[in-house]
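Step 1: inspect the first sequence and its tokens.
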Amino acid sequence: MIDPSGEFGIQAEKWAPLHKTIEGWVEALALAHHASKWARQVTKLAGDDVTSIDLRGYVPVREVMGLTDTWWRGPDALVALYSGEATSLDFPRGRVAVIYAGLDEWGLRGGVADDG
């Protein structure tokens, strides 16, 4: 759904804005496709295991304009944190993280300018 302010999200038991804009959601989809193509290893975590991810040294990927679903860029990995559905359904164990590891500069950025 799209709310009156333009945020893209899902509505179940309650509203959960996933991305600040539809364009952010599209960027997230494109990034997921790109990362899955170039990563040497993809790891999926769910529920309480998501809290074990250490994001020190990672920066938010601003292009996705994430709210409850966010992306993080590290030295050789991208991490997607999907919390929107868990938030909307009030089901914390529904959180999912996907870690795309073993990425080179092209895999990390795909031609996108540096976050810093």
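Step 2: inspect the second sequence and its tokens, then contrast the two.
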Amino acid sequence: MTAGDVAAGYAHLHADATAVLRRWAAPDAGQEGLRHGYLAHLAAHPDGVAKAGPPAHLTGSCVVLDATGEHVLLTHHRRAGLWFQLGGHLEPGDATLHDAARREAREESGLEDLEPLPEPVQLDRHTLEGDFGRCREHLDVRYVAQAPAGAAPRVSAESHDVRWWPVDALPEGTRAELSPLVEAGRRALGLL
């Protein structure tokens, strides 16, 4: 498949991601810099939202908080061997970036009723280490959803485990990355 074929198959997601990032009000200068960087990446790469596109591409994820906002649902990723929010690559069947984040959250959690807020809460650009094929860098667009009381997640094939963690006791090695995301999610849900 050529880059042009990939770009054509993902054109609707490229257009949507560009529109989302253009209208998104970044909460600080660091996030604003990432927003501009994402937009520049999309302008340079018509296939920049596809896993089959450039080695650096957009992904969609969703941090899921419980009904109280005191616990966050994390997945122990099979390839990375670390705890993360739910998320992954965009697929051509996704209508929007938001839909991709919702699909990933539902698939990876087993919680069929998750509905992320309409706008992202954070951007995060990170390099991948390990066996991720041609993927080298993710430009992650992160949403937030709140699970209903008593929600019981199920482990998917992409994870070793899925578990609720207290927001003030995140797993070792994740706090620097996940604490700001959890805080942004709690703020967006009106829990701070």
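Step 3: confirm your contrast with the notes below.
The CA atoms of residues 14 and 121 lie 19 Å apart. The mean pLDDT is 93.
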